[in-house]
Amino acid sequence: MAIDYIAYMDQQVMEFMERCGVGIERVEVLETFYRDLVAANRDFNLTRITEPEDFWVRHVADSLSIGIVIPEIMTVEMRVFDVGCGGGFPIIPLAWANPSLQITGL
């Protein structure tokens, strides 16, 4: 069953994502990741944050906040290495926001 993710995002989150350089029209792309994360979390305890509202604020927006400090990470092709990415944060939202990143997570 598909979830209407935009219904779980308030205006502030949408504005924040746009400020980070991510257009809201691409939100549906993370639907599969969210579902897989929640399913895997039942067996592997990847995160305590599993509600859709919290996913957008505490996982996605937090991960993209690096784009405020380092704006080029949202647009430029570069290599990124993340030590301790746990459930895939921040590397999955960053890869989603900038597909030209070459990301390695450990």
Helical proportion, percent range: 40-55%
By DSSP, the count of extended strands is 2
Q: If helices are DSSP runs of H or I spanning 4 or more residues, what is the number of helices?
A: 6
- Percentage of β-strand residues: 5-15%
Structural class by helix and strand composition? mainly alpha
Question: Keyphrases for this structure?
Answer:
106 residues; 6 helices; mainly alpha; single chain; 2 strands; two-stranded parallel ribbon
Brief synopsis:
The chain is mostly helical and 106 residues long. 48% of the residues lie in helices and 8% in strands. The chain has helices spanning 5-8, 11-19, 31-44, 52-64, 66-69, 91-97; strands at residues 79-82, 102-105.
Model description:
It is a single chain. The chain is mainly α and 106 residues long. The protein has one domain. Helices cover 48% and strands 8% of the residues. Strands 1-2 form a two-stranded parallel sheet. Strand 1, helix 6 and strand 2 form a beta-alpha-beta unit. Helix 4 (52-64) crosses helix 6. It is globular.
SSE inventory with pairings:
Blueprint (H helix, E strand, L loop, with lengths): L4 H4 L2 H9 L11 H14 L7 H13 L1 H4 L9 E4 L8 H7 L4 E4 L1
Parallel strand pairs: 1-2
